Amino acid sequence: MVKPSLRREMAHKAVAAARCSIRQACVTFSVSESCYRYQAKLSSENAEIADLLVRLTHNQRNWGFGLCFLYLRNVKGYPWNHKRVYRIYRELNLRIKPRKRLIREKPEPLAVPTAINTSWSMDFMHDQLEDGRSYRLFNVIDDYNREGLGIEVGLSLPSERVIRALDQIIEWRGESPARSAVTMARNTSVLPWPPGLRSGILH
Predict the structure, then answer these.
(1) Helix or strand holding residue 154 (H, E)
(2) What is the torsional sign of CA 32, 36, 37, 38?
(3) Number of other CB atoms surrounding residue 78 within 10 Å
(4) What is the structure's pLDDT at 9?
(5) CB burial class (10 A; 0-12, 13-18, 19+) of residue 106?
(6) C-alpha distance across the termini of the chain, in Å
(7) What's the number of domains the chain is made of?
């Protein structure tokens, strides 16, 4: 169905081309003569509404039409109808654009160890005593059978103590024959491993 505004425009074009009179054009395009002669009056309030909407959406980037209209109506006290405000809102194209979803690549499957002593993992944990003092734990496990190879507990775990605990595990279990995977907690403060470390655990 053709909108009245489009029918009025077609009637104006027909009369302008001297094809028919105004009355005949109104009958042909089903437009009343009052609609044909109507001229929209520009209102200074429309410019004020547009200015307020632009400023609101600029300062509050996550506000949609609903929040903008409620702010203007309930906070500022403007009496404008929501249809009028929404029409100007749409003309300004101020709607919040949807964010594009990032397409993540499929992660590669983790390597599954096939024998003991081929892949170790280590992690740090921390907790508090009743008196408020914090203590830390350094754990090392075998990824194949989830065997706990060592747990080091202390109020402080400097890098020298961690290296000593790893050397003790290597002396007991032997050098890891394959490149081992190491899972370290991001909140650790261990210093970089020295070049001469005998540990078969690699990061």
Answers:
(1) strand 148-154
(2) positive
(3) 15
(4) 85
(5) exposed
(6) 69
(7) 3
Any residues with CB less than 8 A from the CB of 17 and at least 6 apart, and which?
none
Residue 180, strand partner residues: 201
Q: CA nearest 140: which of 108, 115, 164? A: 164
Over residues 175-195, the pLDDT tens digits come to: 654 334 333 433 344 444 444
Residue 68 lies in a domain: yes
Residue percentage of the chain with pLDDT more than 70: 83
108 domain residue, yes or no:
no
Same domain assignment for residues 146 and 201 = yes
Given a contact cutoff of 8 angstroms between Cβ atoms, the answer to whether 175 and 200 are in contact is: yes
Residues 69 and 31 in one domain: no
What's the pLDDT score for residue 107?
81
Judgement on whether residues 135 and 192 belong to the same structural domain of the protein: yes
Give residue-wise pLDDT tens across range 44-56: 788 899 999 999 9
Q: Is residue 106 part of a domain?
A: no
Residues 6+ away with beta carbon under 8 Å from 199: 163, 166, 167, 170, 193
- Residue 85's CB: how many other CB atoms inside 10 A? 21
